[in-house]
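Please predict the structure of the following assembly.
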Amino acid sequence: MADEGLSRRARENLRRREEMLAAALELFSEKGYHNVSMHEIAAKAEFAVGTLYKFFRNKEELYKSLIVELADRFHEALTSTIREADDEIEQLRNYVKAKREVFAENISVLRLYFAETRGASFNVKAGLDREIRERYHRFMRSLASVFERGMRKGHFRRIAEPYYLAVALDSLCNSFLLLWLEAPEEHPFPENPDVILDILFRGLINA
Amino acid sequence: MADEGLSRRARENLRRREEMLAAALELFSEKGYHNVSMHEIAAKAEFAVGTLYKFFRNKEELYKSLIVELADRFHEALTSTIREADDEIEQLRNYVKAKREVFAENISVLRLYFAETRGASFNVKAGLDREIRERYHRFMRSLASVFERGMRKGHFRRIAEPYYLAVALDSLCNSFLLLWLEAPEEHPFPENPDVILDILFRGLINA
Amino acid sequence: MADEGLSRRARENLRRREEMLAAALELFSEKGYHNVSMHEIAAKAEFAVGTLYKFFRNKEELYKSLIVELADRFHEALTSTIREADDEIEQLRNYVKAKREVFAENISVLRLYFAETRGASFNVKAGLDREIRERYHRFMRSLASVFERGMRKGHFRRIAEPYYLAVALDSLCNSFLLLWLEAPEEHPFPENPDVILDILFRGLINA
Amino acid sequence: MADEGLSRRARENLRRREEMLAAALELFSEKGYHNVSMHEIAAKAEFAVGTLYKFFRNKEELYKSLIVELADRFHEALTSTIREADDEIEQLRNYVKAKREVFAENISVLRLYFAETRGASFNVKAGLDREIRERYHRFMRSLASVFERGMRKGHFRRIAEPYYLAVALDSLCNSFLLLWLEAPEEHPFPENPDVILDILFRGLINA
DNA sequence: GATGAATGAGTTTTCATTCAT
DNA sequence: GATGAATGAAAACTCATTCAT
């Protein structure tokens, strides 16, 4: 992220790497891991295949780097918006809004992200799965802490484990994102986060 | 399903088809679409590859048939349990319980089902997506009708569109299934459906 | 070797295999292991690459099969001529003559055979080396037994270990073959085996 | 060899060249021509690949230079020991002893040398073969002259052409070296040169 | 009608060589 | 003059699909 303090060569390399990952992201998002060839990626990034292999040991590693960096970027974007509010309710609102914004800018990437984090993917042999899931859960724990705090402060009722509430909220958002992805016109992602949050906040059944 | 009224030959063929699909399911569940070859499927089903191609135009179609029939079987199993109760709350409880049971028996298949219905899969080129999603939404609409009815009867508060509530509930269940799949010991799927349903039923915030 | 008792299919397969090995032999003899591609072999044998891989797991195995079968064929041809004589001196004469004949018919193969059995080759990764050398030494032991017997009968003086004499004689023949291979006109392999054998039989120094 | 009379730059370059060849020798000896990359050689010699190409037109030429210089070094070492004796028998003894010593110090190189001079190698496309063989025969002729002289002086019987005797003796030594290379414990190269020479000197058959 | 051998396009990956810095 | 990043041709190998038996 911070390119300062790097030699020109190093900065140059970083930029090249980003270009390759960007090309790969676009292709993988569109067609999936197995339907994209290294030649295709190289061509799109406007490098020779050999150059691709200078930056990534093999296709699997390229993919893994891509997914991990993507997840980190998303998770960082999401957690950072949480920090921007004090009130737990506001934090959750920020989370839902951020989720919308992050993916609105990256709609094509949404599928890829879901396929890997939620989709029980078979795409890449092994290891990625584990690594990416660990990151996901680390991320969920940070969302869970919002619920935890809200409960301690007495703002939230203890209707379920904070961790499960985090997963529930995230999965709720994902459902709406998926609906939106499928039919943007018919199922727009609500601009008002409370449309989604009310499902959690308000009881379906009158107490 | 109903084999009556068919010639012996036709019945025979149906059985063969099932055998092929069963072999394919096992392999795809374990390794994913791209890591299974037609030869492997043929060998497991104890047919020649050529015979496989008599029944399915190509690998994609075989996969598609498999997923579609799988989804139908699951959706039928789930909706049938809904019908077994009169009370809407009980119907939702049955839904959650059925979800648990359906996948407890088919744990290896869970990944495959998720990859396709929820995972924004890239496994197969195109077309499957559309068809499988349509079926999924038809299924969601039948779940939505439970919420709809509950609202009409005044049992449920109108905290969100019935359809969105259906998607929300299903996605909630899926989250728990996924947690269970990843770490069966640590995150068992709750035997009591209310653990999950309370997230919907009870408001997080005290009204 | 004996194709009888095989199904037509099996015989057919054996013939195909031979065709592939023959094409490979010609190419490897001419250019060496690393300068021949599987596509080239397939093309020369008039099969598709895929078919090649049906018969040989990989390039290494194809090469190994080739060399091992080649060595066996040569060694069998050589040892069989030894058996055709009773007198040890005659046996050695037969050996030298057979060596000439075997390679006169297979001149292009000579280089390949030498590269592997005598050339301390790096061609193929591992295993072949060991296996081919073991066969070579088994073969040398059978030649050594001729010297051994000749000594026991008092026909030969015990000027060196029989095994070393076998290796010496073979290496002597190989030198003449190599000279012949390089300059057939200038250094023809002697038709009279005694030209070579005298180097062993007669002392350079007058006792 | 004689670096005098050269500019500093020229001497410097000669040194670099030697370093590159030394690195290449080590790698080729260990893994063979095709399993060593130019990058590997450059890295081992601590130069950039580009620099390697300043000194050698391509990989083939580098290899060729290496082998030719290697052969010259060995042949020079061997012929020089011949010169150190007056008696022809002693000269041959010196030859056998020198052969042992030369390769004892360079055991890893032995394979490479054999592969090229005796192994009918395919390592390098063309040309090397011719050049290296010419040198080998020039070397053989100088060994042949020992036999020639011995015959003229009446010390040796004329059991074969001097040139063929030279080739025979060398090939005899090589066989023992090869046995030694394969199983140093089981087949040590004899310290006493007569163990080998007796095969030539003494007749196998009692005159 | 079933079979499975044969096909060959397509994939990942390596590495000798060049050339801008 | 040295460097080493970039190149892309070429290799080994796989597998969906066909079709003669």
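The CA atoms of residues 33 and 123 of chain D lie 6 Å apart. Chains D and B do not touch (no CB pair under 8 Å).
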